[in-house]
Amino acid sequence: MSTTQMMKGILDGCLLAIIKNKEVYGYELAEKLGEYGFLNFSEGTIYPLLLRMQKEQFVTSTLRKSTAGPKRKYYSLTEKGEEELERFTERWYHLQRNVNNVLNHETSNQKELGE
Amino acid sequence: MIKQEAVLSKESRKFLDDLHVYLFSSGKNEKETNEIIEELKDHLIEAEKNGKSIEHIIGISPKSYMEQLSKEMSVDYKSWFKYIPLMILGVFSIIIIGDVFDGPLSYSLLEILGSIGISSLFLAGISFTFRYISANQLSTVNELIIFALVGGMPIGLFIGLIFLDRAVSTPTISFGITGTIIIAVVTTIFLIAFSYWAKTWILLVIPAFFSLPDFLLGYTTMVESTRLIIGTLITYGGIAVYILLSNRKRKT
Question: Is residue B25 part of a domain?
Fold first, then answer.
């Protein structure tokens, strides 16, 4: 599996978490993701995800005039979105724990076998 | 607005234009389409200010990015039910205006049904073509070839229909002189209203170029074959010049 494929479901959750913390617009979201280290993904990928999350009513958007000039679409989390974020967090920790267990055990086994 | 456009690179502007055409010809909701275009425009402006390339935003393949967006957007069936009959009426108006100059109107059932069929097929073809051209990076020559093929398709089909109509007889509806005049007036009003609504004169320009040269040359003393050649030249040359001029106007 390539990183991009693996990322898709994970990005969803990260977007929800960022939006929960603060109302943001698209470019801000991409910047935040970049700051957190998600560097090699095309920033535009967030828009299809945002469209879908709006359809599923996890996020809502409002058009607001920004100080810079153009009207911007700001996203905020709905109640349904908060629930989804909780579910994602749970799934993620579970997955993370399992993967860590596998990697820790198997790689240390290999080391023992190698010696 | 104007300041923003200047900030955006040519590449990004082309992408946004292509995306607009792609989503429109995929029948996506107009409001949603405009919103996502605005959002991406804003994003691209910010990104370019920070020295990011367009690939960094939309990935290596514009086509697959357009598909991704399109997949998440709803199709606006309601307005397509409005547009399609209007466009078919537009095609009929062009045919009617062309025929009015040849005397009282009369159409066979086959001609009427065939014209509806050909117009629908043509609309489907145009929609497919625009989607294809906007999603794929083609050279201008290839684009022109595709447009010529798709544009030529209804001409070929209409010629086929004329021959079929001669071979097969179906009930004919004839309008007298009064009927023809009423239809001509109604059609002209429709064409003008439609052009005003769609903000383009193309529906008036094309039938005018198809019927007027023939009609006016009929008053000259030229031999028929000369008349035919000159008429055809004016028709296609005129339309080509019109499209070129309006293209140039759109670009500036």
Answer: yes
A91 and A29 in contact (C-beta within 8 Å)?
A: no
**Is residue B224 included in any domain, yes or no?**
no
Q: Is B230 a domain residue?
A: no
* Residue B28 DSSP code: B
pLDDT digits (tens, 9 = 90+) for A9-45: 888 999 999 999 999 999 999 999 999 988 778 899 9
* Structural domain range at position B55: 2-71
User: Do residues B219 and B245 touch, judged by C-beta distance below 8 A?
Assistant: no
How many independent structural domains does chain B possess? 1
Selecting from A42, A52, A71 the residue whose C-beta is nearest the C-beta of B59 gives A42
Tell me: the pLDDT tens digits for B133-188?
888 888 888 888 888 888 888 888 988 998 999 898 888 888 888 889 899 899 88
- Whether the CB of B72 is below 8 Å from some CB of chain A: the reply is yes
What is the distance, to the nearest Å, from the Cα of residue B149 to the centroid of all Cα atoms in its chain?
14
Of B36, B42, B65, the CB nearest to A70: B42
Instruction: Say whether B65 and A25 touch across the interface (CB within 8 A).
Output: no
DSSP A45: G
d(CA A53, CA A63): 17
Question: Within its chain, how far is the Cα of B116 from the centroid?
Answer: 16
If phi > 0 it is left, if psi is from -120 to 50 it is alpha, else beta; for residue B13 that is alpha
- Give me the domains of chain A, ranges plus CATH numbers: 3-114 (1.10.10.10)
Q: Quick one: angle between helices B77-100 and B177-198, nearest 10? A: 130
CA atoms within 13 A on the CB side of A65: 2
Are B71 and A48 an interchain contact pair (Cβ–Cβ within 8 Å)? yes
The two structure tokens encoding residue A7: 């990322």
SS3 A39: coil
In a domain, B117, yes or no: no
Are β-strands A71-77 and A59-65 bridged in parallel, bridged antiparallel, or unpaired?
antiparallel
Give burial (CB, 10 Å; 0-12/13-18/19+) of A85.
Answer: buried
What residues of chain B lie within 8 A of the CB of A52, using their CB? 72
Strands A24-25 and B172-174: unpaired
Whether the predicted interface score ipTM is above 0.95? no
